[in-house]
Specification:
226 residues; single chain; 17% strand; 8 helices; alpha/beta; globular; 9 strands
Length: 226
C-alpha cells in the first residue's frame, strides 16, 4: 500500500532557473515563447530598464523603469542577477524578482547573452545554462537576411558576434540545435523536466526524507534496545 507522506510535497518545490543564450537569428525567442505557452508554471521576470517608457507601457508590468543612478546602484549593491547595456540603456533582471518566483515553485526563464549567463552562473550555481545553436552558418545568415531588419554591414557584425558566442557554448550545460522549433521546444521541456530531479532540486526532499525515514528508523531501533 502506498502511503502519502508530507515530505513528498518537497520534491522540487523550489522553481528552477533556466538561462538560454544563442546568437541573434537562431530563433531562441520563439522557442522560449512557445515553451511558456505550453508550460504555464514557467515564467519570465519583468526586467528593469533605464530607457524611457514607450506609449502604452506600464511600470511594473512591462518593465521597471529606473533612472541610471538607481539602476547602477542596484548593480553595485548586488541586487541585479544579470544586466547589460544596449544603445547606452541599461536592461537587467533583479535577483529579488527571480527568487520570489522560484520560491513560489515557478520555473524562471532568462534570455541572456553569454556575459550575463556567466554572471548568473556565478551568483546561482544551480541555474541551468542552455545554448541554442543554428543548424548551420548558412541558415543563420539567411535568417538574419530574411528578417529585413538589418543591412549588410549589420549582418556581418552579427555573424562575427555569433562566432564569438558559439566559441563559448562549451561553458553551457546543454546544447539545443534549432533546426525545427517544435523539436527544440520538446528538447527544452525534456531538459527542464529531467533537471528537476537533480540533487540540487531534490535537496529539500532528501533532507526531509532522511529525517522522516532514516532517523525515525534509528530511533525505533534504539527504543527496542533500551
Amino acid at each position: 500500500m502506498s502511503i502519502k507522506k508530507e515530505y513528498f510535497d518537497k520534491i522540487a518545490e523550489h522553481g528552477q532557473l533556466i538561462v538560454i543564450s544563442g546568437p541573434v537569428g537562431t530563433g531562441k525567442e520563439n522557442v522560449i515563447r512557445q515553451y511558456l505557452e505550453e508550460h504555464p508554471n514557467a515564467c519570465v521576470c519583468t526586467q528593469a530598464t533605464t530607457r524611457e517608457p514607450r506609449e502604452g507601457e506600464e511600470d511594473g508590468k512591462d518593465f521597471f523603469f529606473l533612472s541610471l543612478i538607481e539602476f547602477e546602484r542596484m548593480i553595485r549593491t548586488g541586487q541585479m542577477l544579470e544586466y547589460s547595456y544596449i544603445d547606452k540603456k541599461g536592461y537587467g533582471t533583479s535577483k529579488k524578482t527571480v527568487d520570489l518566483a522560484r520560491s513560489q515553485g515557478r520555473n524562471v526563464i532568462l534570455d541572456a547573452d553569454v556575459v550575463s549567463a556567466m554572471r548568473v552562473r556565478a551568483i546561482c550555481p544551480d541555474a541551468i545554462l542552455i545554448f541554442v545553436l543554428p543548424p548551420s552558418w548558412q541558415v543563420l545568415e539567411e535568417s538574419l537576411t530574411k528578417s529585413g531588419r538589418y543591412d549588410e554591414d549589420k549582418i556581418n557584425e552579427l555573424m562575427d558576434m555569433a562566432e564569438e558566442d558559439i566559441a563559448c557554448a562549451n561553458l553551457y550545460d546543454y546544447i539545443i540545435i534549432n533546426e525545427d522549433p517544435e523539436k527544440a521546444v520538446r528538447r527544452l521541456a525534456q531538459i527542464v523536466h529531467g533537471h528537476r530531479y537533480s540533487k540540487a532540486n531534490m535537496a529539500g526532499f532528501l533532507d526531509s526524507y532522511i529525517k522522516g525515514e532514516i532517523q525515525a528508523r534509528n530511533k525505533a531501533v534504539s527504543d527496542v534496545l533500551k
